[in-house]
């Protein structure tokens, strides 16, 4: 048995019927040339009949709500689903995926599902046929970085490779090159005691310098329509934008690509809330996850969050971008002075009340942040599944009762694939958000054009 971490426990504690705590990915593949009509059916049959054993975390069963243990009766039929679309449209696909994303995982089995979706029409008539894989895993099993690694390590970098090593079954090559060392109870206690002084010092610094304009806290997050009770309904909206557009803006304004992503999302949220006559006078705040992984591991959760000022009260786009940049730098500088254990304990103290509030709903009108905006890194390598090329990865993440919107994107090849998860009952007209994001990106490009013209 392996004990759950505090983070794992938190994700399990937060789960309820209208608050599933799984992360997902909708992955699109283009069929190889000369693929026969039954390519996808044969692929699923190969998956279902494979004698490759499931390995951690995919064979891990929740035991006594405190441990992961191996499922000796693992049955792939509890996890693998083949679905043929009626009309091949993306609208039907997204309706199916949104419905699946609203369903809680069965805790009597390992906490993941794989849906292989056939019959999807090509983007245009001259493009290859496509299929999709919708994979969902409980957040207690893995964070976004680990999930991305688990999935991509099951694929091939060669379009000619026909052998499939399923993502739920590890081989020796896919094991971490730097596996975590076994930790004794004594070493863990020493580590925790060692965090007390540096964490206390960081809090003292914050108390001594309250004048920092970007030093926001979970106690001054404004109420907004994003922070209402949610229903079981989920709406997944996808949008793919060229990465180079974000890189050009970042280079011009001398900020990071992620700063531009946050600024574009902030501007879109400002427009959306203004259209609903619900824009708060004070800036929205976002939880921005950061990975604490220092190796190539693909298990569990190793993450913390930067509470970020989105400057949605600013009318000027450049001022908004610079404010976001300063807020991110402030958080990164603080974390750079701490070890991983210190960062986790600092975050537990800083944000702990917000997690308790979400779990207990003691103060439903008081939230510690307005939404989560997450950027999952990937690489530029092309990946294939039995010759089918992976073209897009759209993440779908968690919503919380009081947090009705989540924006997560995958940094995949030359695109940024946005996955917007929302409660459509709580947020009217939220389907317009992708076009607002695109408009904000265009606005920054126009600012560059105006400053470079003679």
Automatic annotation (TrEMBL):
Q: What class of enzyme is it?
A: transferase
Any one Pfam family here would be WS_DGAT_C
Which pathway does it take part in? Lipid metabolism; Glycerolipid metabolism; triacylglycerol biosynthesis
Q: List the InterPro entries.
A: Acyl_transf_WS/DGAT, O-acyltransferase_WSD1-like, O-acyltransferase_WSD1_C, O-acyltransferase_WSD1_N
Q: What stretches pass through the bilayer? A: none
- EC number(s)? 2.3.1.20
Task: Outline the extent of the O-acyltransferase WSD1 C-terminal domain.
Answer: 300-441
Top-rank lineage group of the source organism: Bacteria
Catalyzed chemical reaction(s) = an acyl-CoA + a 1,2-diacyl-sn-glycerol = a triacyl-sn-glycerol + CoA
Which keywords does this chain's UniProt record carry? Acyltransferase, Glycerol metabolism, Lipid biosynthesis, Lipid metabolism, Transferase
Q: Where is the O-acyltransferase WSD1-like N-terminal domain?
A: 4-261
Q: Which family does it belong to?
A: Belongs to the long-chain O-acyltransferase family.
- PANTHER family linked: O-ACYLTRANSFERASE (WSD1-LIKE) FAMILY PROTEIN, WAX ESTER SYNTHASE_DIACYLGLYCEROL ACYLTRANSFERASE 4-RELATED
The molecule here is called diacylglycerol O-acyltransferase
Supply the source organism for this entry.
Moraxella oculi
